[in-house]
Each structure stands twice: as structure tokens, then as C-alpha cells.
Amino acid sequence: MEKLEREPIITKTPLPEYLKMYDISGQDRITEHGFNRYTKNKEQDNFIKEQKENSTTLFIKRIKDAPEEEKSSLIKLGLENQNIEVQKVSVRMIHSALNSEATSLIKLGLENQNIEVQKEAAENIWLASEKEDLIPLRNILLAKIKQGLENPNIEKQKISVDMIRWAPEEAMAPLIKLCLNNSNIEVQRASTSVINSAPEEERAPLRNLVLAKIKQALEGPNIKEWKVSTGMIWAAPKEERAPLRNLVLAKIKQGLENSNIEIQKASVEMIWAAPKEEIVSLIKQGLENPNIEVQKASIEMIWAAEEKTELLNLIIGKGLGEELIKPPLYKNNNINKETFSRQKFNKTGSETTLIGGELKDKAIIRHIEPNAFLSWQKLYEDYTTWKNAGFDYVPIEPIQSYKLNKNGLVDVFSGVLDLSLRDWSDKTITFANQLEEQKKKIINVLDQLEIRHGHMHDGNFCLRFFRDENGRVDFKRVPRLYLIDFDQAVSP
After folding, report:
1. Around Cβ 485, how many Cβ atoms within 10 Å?
2. The model's pTM
3. Residues 428 and 390 in one domain
């Protein structure tokens, strides 16, 4: 019997050379499995493009392109849509409708059940068709503010507070006073942001009430209220601000000597509100604390110091460099590496989900409109353009995998980077020129491709430092810069 020859066994498929441009220092290299998974994901691209036709971005374009006499009916249609984002953008488009229709559209927005839509409408009150229309609109708004302030949800109360700036003038001061007397310190702090909207002659009593609330919080037992109250100092009477900072200083010193670690941490987190000349020594004291959590909290305060070099050297010398450059993603969240879990991350714009377990610090999930995703994907996959622009890497938030979800959004697993350019600039001027040059080059490429990011500020440029084989950060080497957060991106 003739012996059959075996087929050769292929142990590994060679990966494309260009994938090196997608490597991120300190993170796992792209494997054959990861590459194949991404390739498999791309089978959805046509479905995502079809879904794009129903996206919020397209709805805005539809309104913009419509004849002027049809815009109002489209905006009304948008306000009836089940998607809250579509309702919100519909209100934002009222300015493009006929002037005679503005008042009725604003009224529809104010009467909407969703408080975020109400706020969008409040911001557009000035578009009212006639001056006499303002009074009934502001009265509707006043009723909605009062209703919102009675809501047990603190976040909704805070949105109601923000709407006070568009309320009837005679109602502003009483509303602000009501909010300053709210039992929740977060609502009190939100109230300070609208004091300057009140008539000038009514502001002094409100500022005195702020002063009383700060003192009450600092003298009380609630740790959270200590921290929140420091954010209200700017709204106290001007002549009282220095004494308040001295009161904060005394509270910090007292807290750092307390045996309770949570009190020590809270004290450190108030350092930014101490007298300027005391800030560096207080941060040093926190860095020398034996508890790592207190040390981490001290690192967060560096932005408040006028002289940062000595502090940075102390942090790196103590082996805390990794903490120095951590992004704020997991701050105030109970996500950890021990347990796989998912948790919503609070941010403006699109929703983001944090992931625990083995993926902590490696990946997050962004849930974004198909149109925005396609713009992001276009930039991310175009390694040739980035190479021609002088980059040896793709400076775009990494897309690890993605899928279209049942709500018509794209769930994108994206790679976690280091802190933002804004946060790094608050800490030091090191690498400032090189990072600014990288930023300009990234912006130029987007301009060439006619892609509009939507919110291209320094908070959406993130650094990634190089690591050695043991994961140690190299602070002598210029980090790479990446543009992230494409939830508002638009491309041709």
C-alpha cells in the first residue's frame, strides 16, 4: 500500500510588518489571534455604514440641508424621537429654523420629560421670536427648575441649578438661596456657579451664605463635605477668602496627624485650596507618608504647586513614576484587577464602560455613533498616511475590537494610554516643545483628510511613555502622543 505524505504543519502565520506601527509600549504585542479577531470584526463594516444612515450626525445634516420652511417640522420630529441624543441635538438646531417658529420649538423642548433636553432648550431661550415671548418661556422654565430641585436624584438637582441662569431675574436670588440651603453639599457647590447671574445688588447676601456653608462643612465630621467645600471658596466674599484658606490649612495639618487613613487622604486632597506658600511643603509631607494611598493622593496635587521640579524628582526617586502618569479613568471607581466587572465611566459626550479583571488598565469600551466610529476607524487604519507624515506609530486611540450593538451604536474596545497632555502640562514643562510639535502634526493630518474631531482640546490628547522590559517608565525619553475620544468625529 502506497504511503501517503502528510501536509506540512504551519506553526504560525507571519503577521504584516505594518502592525509594528500599532505597538504600544508596555502593553501586549498584537498577536495572530488579535489580528484575526480585528479582521473578523471588519465583516460588520457594511452593516455599520448602513446604520450610519440613522445616526444622530446624519439627522443634524438632514436638518441643515433641508429648506428653511421644513426645518421646524424636522426638529419637532427629532423631539419625538426615542433617542435622547437626537432630542438634544434637535433643540440645538432651533437656531436654523424660521424665527417665527423658534418660540414654539423652545416651548416643546422645555416641556420635554428629560431634564437634559430641558436644559438644552433653556440655553436657547434667547432665540424666542419676540421679547414678549420670553416671559411665558421663563415661567415654564421656572416651574421645571422647581420640579427638578425636588427630584431625589442629585445629578438632576445639579442640572436644575445650572438652569437658574436663564430663569426670570426676580426668581434667581431666591432660587440660589434655596439651593445653598440644600442638605447636599454638591448642590450647594453647584449653586455658587450661578451667583453671578443674580442681580448685582442681591449677590452679597448670597456670598455671605456661601461663607457660612463653607465654615459649617469644615467644622463638621463629614470628610466629603470638607473636600467639596474648598471648591466654594472662590464664591465667598473676597475679603474672607484668605482666612478661609488658613482655616483649610489648619484642617489639613490636623488631618495629616490623624490615624485614620481616609482622613489623611481627604486632607491631602484639600491641599490645592491652602495658601500658595504652603502647598509644596504639604505635598512633600504627603509624599513622605508611609501609606501608599496617601502618597498617590499627594501626587494628584502637584498641579497646584508653583515650583514642581523638586516634587517630580522626589516622586520618581521614590519609584512612584507610574502613579504620576496614570490616567484618571479609575479614580473614584471600584474597578480592580482581581474581579472581572464592568462599570459606567462618567464623562461628557458618549458613554464609556470601564472593565475590571485582566483587562483593567488595558482596555475600555466606548459606545459611539456609527458615523463617528467610521471617522475614527478611517484614521486608525490609515497607517500609510501617518508614516508619510513622519510618524513611526499610529497616533490615534487604539481600536482593539468592535461590534455593532442592538441599540445601533458601535461598542469599541479601545486601548488605555497614560495621562492627558493637559494633565501632564499641569505637572511639568518637560517635553513641552516636542509634544506640541507632535500635536501640530496630528492636527495637520486631520485637516488634510478633512476629518473634524469635534473637541480637539489638550484633554483629548494622551501621552504614552516608553517602558523597559520590566515595565519601568522611561522619563528621559519623549513619550508618544495620541488623539482620543472620537464620539463627535465627522468625515467626508
Report:
1. 27
2. 0.83
3. yes
**296, 325 in Cβ contact below 8 A?**
no
Range of the domain at 334: 20-50+330-483
Residue 425 sits in the same domain as residue 474: yes
Backbone angles phi, psi at 385, to 5 degrees: -60, -40
Distances (CA, A) of 148 to 107, 159, 164, 170, 417: 17, 8, 11, 19, 38
The reply to whether 265 and 404 lie within a common domain is no
Is the pLDDT assigned to residue 4 strictly greater than 50?
no
**pLDDT tens-digit map of 181-200:** 999 999 999 999 999 999 99
Considering the domain boundaries, does residue 271 fall inside one? yes
pLDDT value of residue 273: 97
294 and 356 together in one domain: no
Angle of helix 309-317 relative to helix 279-287, nearest 10 degrees?
0
The per-residue pLDDT for range 274-310, each reduced to its tens digit, is 999 999 999 999 999 999 999 999 999 999 999 999 9
304 vs 313: CA distance, rounded Å: 16
CA distances from 72 to 69, 226, 377 (A): 7, 49, 34
